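Quiz preparation item.
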């Protein structure tokens, strides 16, 4: 019987009650002396609550100014920098901005401090080449949590999206028989058309593809509940009081929900997450172009091969998003990724948050009792606060900004050992015309065709090519045939480039952080690698090199130097199973809190990880708000 061994209805009601109990605050956080925030919070602190007058000047400036938030955040913050806030956020990346926006809406007076002249972190738009506006680092949107769109009213604050359909294009390098053009694989939302495309390579695969998509959709549904809450509170289970242990049982609810969704298929999904993606895809398909196209999502941004165990999770991470109600959809942000950051910033500042650019945080200040009391800027300015949230990487937060004497040695050692290897070199290119592919020649008028809006996968005809590219990097060499994901956002958003021209995003790998023999990247090495990438594109789209107006080359060290990405890693640290969920960034400290009371991690190095998701910022803000109420 289904209820056998459950002890009857009384026990079920007890379990339901435990699930509804709120998570417990950090033990001892309220022991730090200082003014209680409880009396200053609105009695009904809901999103949209009226804020204190202290931030209204910036709110009016936002409403009146036609310029992006990052251009005016520092110069038009009326009243300037204050000596004290309720909360300080280090870094104006998208997670930091999301955290600030939620806290401010909850009545917590919040200030954000950003080192660069522009907000957004890696979600930024920059005019590197005159009149060409690039999403210089991140370049696509899908993973941003649906609640964030709604809660922060991002459309009201100017966010506009261009959904892509079709979304994936993989051209072949093959001799056209009898004057025929080479084959290509074009995938979108129309399943019948997808099957027709796949059938060029395998009818069996065409029949299997809908079942594979349903399999992936079910796994994404199971993971979804885990993304919007802190992980299971293992510290409370191990060291908390009896009441704290009982309350922490509520954090098991998302895990149990995930288990119910997966049901009897759990072993298959476990294999997917732990096996090499090549093994998984071999069980589903036989055609290499399809397998390699799907495998790109398992290695993108990761220093892993499709043959690496656990590469399946990275694939899942990239397919569990969606846009405007369409699961798995990816799109371009009107005006580039910086427009997303601007919309989040407007949401925050409209409710009274302060955002300061070109203000570098030098260290986190700690009082004599071991509690955070604010930050010190690089110019020596002290800013007091009850809590500090860092959207910087775990390494910068805990190894550079936090006084080491306040952190346990074991914690510091674990942070220093995080895997931050990155294979990525991002190349932003301005061109005076669209690339014309042998597999899909341009229209006579040169207008964008459906495949131009896609992620175009080059050197991806075979999973062996991806593995060989990875092995080159393991030898300290840039890949001889690098994996190239080519996107042309101006194909859907003409505001990014002059008429007839386009911006091209090249997300390429594998490139090691340090070259063979300990050699560092220099201008000659950068240009040699970019030339190799361009030669590869030229083979698929003759004339591409002649169309280039200018380029911006960002190797792993460049991504680290400009955007603060450790090792150039776009996720802050690897998205491997040993660095996920209750082990992100390290075990026992996955709930956004850290050993130092009042300091929180809210960036991609925290659960649930990287990508323009915003979940870490949102989750951290709610944890902080709960702790502040108990102070």
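Solution:
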């Amino acid at each position: 019987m289904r209820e056998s061994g459950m002890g009857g209805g009384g026990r079920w009601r007890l379990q339901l009650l435990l699930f509804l109990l709120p998570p417990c605050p950090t033990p001892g956080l309220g022991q730090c002396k200082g003014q209680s925030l409880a009396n200053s919070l609105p009695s009904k602190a809901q999103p949209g609550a009226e804020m204190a007058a202290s931030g209204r000047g910036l709110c009016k400036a936002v409403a009146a100014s036609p310029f992006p938030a990052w251009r005016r955040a520092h110069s038009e913050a009326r009243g300037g920098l204050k000596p004290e806030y309720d909360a300080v956020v280090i870094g104006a990346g998208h997670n930091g901005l999301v955290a600030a926006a939620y806290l401010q809406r909850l009545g917590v007076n919040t200030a954000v401090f950003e080192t660069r002249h522009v907000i957004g972190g890696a979600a930024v738009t920059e005019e590197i080449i005159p009149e060409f506006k690039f999403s210089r680092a991140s370049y696509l949107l899908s993973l941003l949590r649906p609640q964030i769109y709604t809660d922060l009213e991002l459309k009201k604050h100017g966010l506009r999206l261009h959904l892509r359909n079709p979304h994936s294009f993989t051209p072949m390098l093959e001799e056209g028989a009898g004057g025929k053009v080479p084959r290509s694989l074009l995938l979108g939302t129309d399943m019948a058309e997808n099957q027709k495309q796949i059938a060029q390579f395998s009818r069996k695969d065409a029949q299997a593809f809908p079942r594979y998509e349903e399999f992936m959709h079910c796994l994404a549904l199971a993971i979804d509940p885990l993304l919007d809450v802190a992980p299971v509170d293992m510290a409370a289970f191990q060291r908390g009081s009896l009441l704290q242990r009982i309350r922490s049982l509520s954090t098991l609810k998302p895990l149990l929900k995930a288990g119910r969704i997966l049901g009897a298929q759990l072993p298959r999904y476990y294999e997917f997450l732990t096996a090499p993606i090549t093994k998984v895809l071999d069980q589903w398909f036989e055609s290499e172009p399809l397998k390699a196209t799907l495998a790109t999502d398992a290695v993108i941004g990761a220093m892993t091969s499709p043959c690496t165990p656990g590469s399946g999770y990275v694939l899942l991470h990239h397919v569990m998003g969606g846009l405007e109600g369409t699961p798995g959809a990816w799109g371009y942000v009107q005006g580039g990724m910086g427009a997303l950051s601007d919309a989040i910033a407007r949401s925050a500042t409209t409710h009274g948050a302060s955002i300061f650019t070109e203000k570098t945080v030098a260290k986190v200040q700690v009082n004599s009792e071991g509690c955070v009391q604010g930050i010190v800027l690089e110019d020596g300015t002290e800013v007091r606060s009850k809590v500090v949230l860092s959207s910087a990487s775990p390494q910068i937060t805990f190894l550079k900004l936090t006084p080491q004497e306040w952190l346990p040695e074991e914690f510091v050692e674990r942070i220093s050992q995080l895997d931050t290897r990155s294979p990525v070199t991002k190349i932003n290119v301005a061109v005076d015309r669209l690339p014309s592919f042998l597999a899909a020649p341009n229209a006579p008028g040169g207008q964008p065709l459906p495949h131009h809006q896609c992620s175009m996968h080059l050197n991806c005809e075979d999973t062996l090519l991806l593995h060989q590219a990875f092995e080159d990097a393991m030898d300290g060499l840039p890949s001889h045939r690098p994996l190239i994901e080519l996107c042309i956002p101006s194909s859907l958003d003409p505001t990014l480039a002059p008429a007839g021209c386009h911006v091209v995003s090249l997300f390429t790998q594998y490139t090691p952080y340090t070259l063979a023999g300990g050699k560092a990247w220099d201008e000659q090495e950068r240009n040699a690698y970019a030339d190799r990438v361009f030669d590869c594109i030229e083979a698929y789209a003759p004339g591409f090199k002649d169309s280039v107006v200018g380029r911006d080359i960002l190797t792993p060290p460049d991504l680290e130097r400009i955007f603060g990405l450790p090792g150039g890693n776009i996720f802050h640290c690897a998205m491997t199973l040993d660095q996920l969920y209750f082990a992100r960034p390290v075990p026992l400290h996955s709930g956004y809190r850290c050993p130092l009371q009042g300091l929180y991690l809210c960036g991609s190095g925290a659960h649930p990880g990287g990508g323009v998701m915003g979940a870490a910022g949102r989750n951290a803000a709610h944890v902080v708000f709960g702790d502040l109420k108990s102070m």
